[in-house]
Design goal:
With 728 residues, the chain is α+β, with helices and mostly antiparallel strands. The chain folds into 3 domains: 23-300, alpha-galactosidase from lactobacil brevis (Beta-galactosidase, Chain A, domain 5); 314-622, TIM Barrel (Alpha-Beta Barrel), CATH 3.20.20.70; 628-727, Immunoglobulin-like (Sandwich). Helices cover 22% and strands 30% of the residues. The protein has 13 helices and 36 strands. Strands 6, 7, 8, 9, 11, 12, 14, 15, 19 and 20 form a 10-stranded antiparallel β-sheet that branches. Strands 21-22-23-26-27-28-29-30 form an 8-stranded parallel β-barrel, surrounded by 5 helices. Strands 5, 10, 13, 16, 17 and 18 form a 6-stranded antiparallel β-sheet that branches. β28 (531-533), α10 (540-550) and β29 form a beta-alpha-beta unit. α5 (327-340) packs parallel to α6. 54% of the residues are buried. The structure holds (2R,3S,4R,5S)-2-(hydroxymethyl)piperidine-3,4,5-triol. (2R,3S,4R,5S)-2-(hydroxymethyl)piperidine-3,4,5-triol binds next to loops.
């Protein structure tokens, strides 16, 4: 009763808040603030987003009050602005004139959720705009909910998750551009007049090519450790559009949401549509500062299923064997990984299929039964073998896809996405199709793949969930003819529903999110996954670059980084020393992906040293605070990054030589994130087999010296690299 009264009192206060502040609503995190003007009957306006200010009057006095529509709707205000929302009403009207009718705010876990309700002046369309501000991390999520109160279906022609207004100046954006095996290259450019669009239309995977995140540097060319920076991540795994519009000399407008192209969503009467959340951060500490906010949010607020846990050191069979797996080879690999000191073995593609055994990528997806020729004693023999060796066992699946050569396709051809009357467009192996996740029967089937595996083999501790196809056949035999345009969106809603069901039953199983490498590294899926496969490219030199870009938004304990085999086919047979390969993989969740039988003695010894050292360093690497010090993209010949713990007592520092030529200047590296008044010892780790620690190892420096003067690291030979533990 007491609590109820308290709540009543609080909601009374909340109602008062609007009038008490003449309509100003502040949405606050520990160091940031978003200010909105909400006036009953008026348009919701955004005034400010940035560092916290104590007195809002100062914003107005300084002329920093932006006063622009928070959710520009087509028909409400300023028709030259791009709309964030446009609805085609049942009667053909395309306008919305949104009036704020209500504001409330409530606590939800570690956050405060602010809800603004708006209604069209003419038509019964209700729009709720949400802002969720976290109390312990500088992230604000925003999204909308659109409710159709009309008597007939309406069409959401545009339904962005959020919109930000930015003061013009020397504003730069950094977005992740890439490709398969060359993911997440941070691409920076100054914002100029006109419209800039970043979009992905793969359908099923949205982080190859262009990814759904962007950094905005407000103080000129992006810097890692300094400068006001806004980071934005759209938490969605489907097609998206991020766009910047610059129409006057005063403001840039940023919009983020589902790409409406081929997805103008039809909303039935009484139905509500919730857009994906857009997560925003602001930091005064450059790109790295914004990254740290995202990493903390991911790990502490459930946006990465693993949370603060560290990932096991594993061996994955793919690059060592490809499809050539059998029981003897699996057991040999388990022997090897346990001898190296690893903790988990993952059997990748190639283990399944009865009528159509999986010998290559042309068949069997959908037939999730053991291939008895390869594994005569079933999975049980493998989980037993893992247990006997003191390691865990994991398995690969690709549940959302099917090959036309499969028993599943013979039984349920209608479960594949397709267009009646049109020839099927076939993907990988010339036979691969995407299952129709809008269909509840398919959702049940996908759930059952995981459920059967885990109930029949309770010792499976890890699943690698792959997705190697884009949606090429835009058609669902399940969705009605007049709802086909909902397909791209409903596919992902169906996938999310299935993942939620899996997680409700199996909260503890570790699941890797893989999509031909990093094709699904996004915050739409990570709440259900523990980590993602960063890239199908495991060349250590290229990984320095790929992991660099990936770390802009994703924390180290989400990034699966594996030591590969050399010569490496993906980069034309490049050979990189094992020490460099280990050091690069150690900066994320360490693993190994090769046939250990083919390793030299030196490679085996270095790998064992690396794994032993990594176990000591792992908590700081995987859950620490990241400072990117020297970018490989800056072409200084050296790349460097480091992690520190919250108490600034420990750190781990990585240095990689990425170029090699005569008379090469090696930059002095200044560290970051340390306590200036503390004294630290540098201890070299993963020392190259046969070598002694470098001259720096064991030397003591103050945090101030390390951060202000910096260190010259001996990096002589090609592919030289060093890992230091920083100990106070
Ligand atoms: C693509 C993944 O990215 C690889 O790691 C591997 O699992 C293959 N699929 C298997 O087909």
């Amino acid at each position: 009763m007491k609590e109820k009264l308290c709540l009543l009192f609080l909601s009374f206060l909340t109602t008062l808040t609007i009038s008490a502040w003449s309509g100003d609503v502040t949405i606050e995190t520990p160091n940031t603030m978003l200010v909105l003007h909400a006036r009953e009957g008026g348009d919701l306006r955004m005034a400010y987003y940035g560092a916290r200010v104590a007195n809002l009057q100062q914003l107005r006095d300084a002329g920093a009050d932006l006063n622009s529509s928070a959710l520009p709707a087509f028909g409400t205000v300023d028709m030259v602005q791009l709309p964030a929302l446009q609805v085609l009403h049942a009667d053909g009207d395309l306008n919305l004139e949104l009036q704020t009718t209500d504001y409330s705010s409530h606590a939800e876990g570690n956050a405060q959720v602010h809800v603004f309700t708006m209604q069209d002046k003419l038509q019964p369309i209700i729009v709720r705009m949400f802002y969720k501000a976290y109390r312990q991390v500088d992230i604000i999520e925003t999204w909308t909910e659109i409710e159709n109160g009309e008597k007939k279906p309406v069409t959401l022609k545009r339904y962005d998750s959020g919109h930000l207004v930015l003061r013009q100046g020397d504003v730069w954006i950094t977005h992740m551009h890439g490709n398969w095996a060359a993911e997440t290259e941070p691409t920076s450019e100054a914002l100029t007049g006109g419209v800039k669009i970043i979009r992905n239309t793969d359908g099923a995977r949205n982080a190859h090519l262009d990814a759904p995140e962007v950094m905005v540097s407000l103080d000129g060319r992006p810097q890692e450790l300094t400068g006001r920076t806004i980071g934005a991540a759209l938490c969605w795994s489907g097609n998206f559009e991020l766009r910047f519009n610059t129409i006057s000399h005063k403001e840039h407008h940023f919009y983020a949401g589902i790409d409406p192209q081929s997805s103008e969503y039809i909303l039935d009467p009484k139905q509500k549509f919730e857009t994906p959340h857009l997560a925003l951060t602001f930091s005064n500490e450059g790109l790295s500062g914004a990254s740290r906010n995202f990493h903390r949010w991911a790990r502490t607020e459930g946006m990465l299923h693993r949370g603060m846990k560290v990932g096991d050191i594993l061996l994955n069979s793919w690059e060592g064997l490809y499809f050539d797996i059998d029981e003897a080879r699996m057991i040999q690999m388990m022997d090897d990984i346990s001898k190296f000191g690893g903790e988990l073995f993952v059997m990748d593609d190639g283990w399944f299929g009865d009528k159509y055994p999986r010998k290559n990528d042309t068949s069997s997806l959908g037939d999730w039964v053991v291939d008895k020729n390869k594994l005569p004693n079933g999975l049980r023999a493998l989980t037993d073998a893992a247990r006997e060796r003191g390691i865990k066992f994991g398995i690969w699946i690709e549940p959302e896809n099917v090959n036309t050569t499969s028993e599943l396709f013979e039984q349920h051809p209608e479960w594949a996405l397709q267009v009646k009357g049109r020839q099927l467009k076939l993907g990988r192996g010339g036979t691969q199709l995407v299952l129709d996740m809008t269909n509840p029967q398919v959702q049940d089937f996908v759930f059952k793949i995981v459920d059967d595996l885990l109930t029949q083999n309770p010792e499976i501790a890890y699943i690698k969930w792959d997705a190697n196809a884009s949606i090429q056949n835009f058609g669902s035999l399940y969705l009605p003819k007049n709802r086909q345009q909902n397909l791209y969106v409903d596919y992902h809603l169906g996938l999310l529903k299935t993942l939620q069901r899996i997680r409700a039953k199996y909260p503890d199983i570790v699941i890797q999110d893989c999509a031909s490498g990093g094709g699904r590294a996004n915050y739409g899926l990570l709440p259900y996954f523990d980590e993602f496969w960063v890239s199908d490219n495991t060349d250590a030199l290229q990984r320095v670059y790929i992991q660099w870009g990936t770390s802009l938004f994703f924390p180290a304990n989400a990034m699966a980084c594996h030591i590969n085999h050399c010569p490496y086919w993906n980069t034309g047979g490049r050979v990189i020393p094992i020490k460099f390969r280990c050091d690069v993989a150690m900066s994320g969740r360490l693993g190994i992906e090769l046939q250990p039988k083919d390793m030299t003695d030196e490679e085996r010894q270095q790998t064992s040293t690396c794994m032993a050292d990594y176990k000591q360093l792992r908590p700081v690497v995987q859950t620490g605070n990241l400072y990117r010090l020297l970018s490989p993209y800056d072409r200084k010949g050296v790349a460097s990054l480091m992690y520190t713990d919250d108490a600034q007592q420990k750190g781990v520092w990585f240095v990689y030589k990425v170029d090699n030529y005569y008379d090469q200047p090696i930059p002095r590296i200044r560290l970051a994130g340390l306590n200036p008044d503390a004294t630290y010892t540098l201890v070299e780790k993963n020392i190259r087999v046969g070598q002694r620690p470098c001259s720096l190892s064991g030397k003591r420096f103050t945090g101030r010296f390390l951060m202000e003067v910096g260190i010259e690291v001996p990096l002589r030979e090609e592919y030289a690299s060093r890992v230091f533990s920083i100990e106070s």
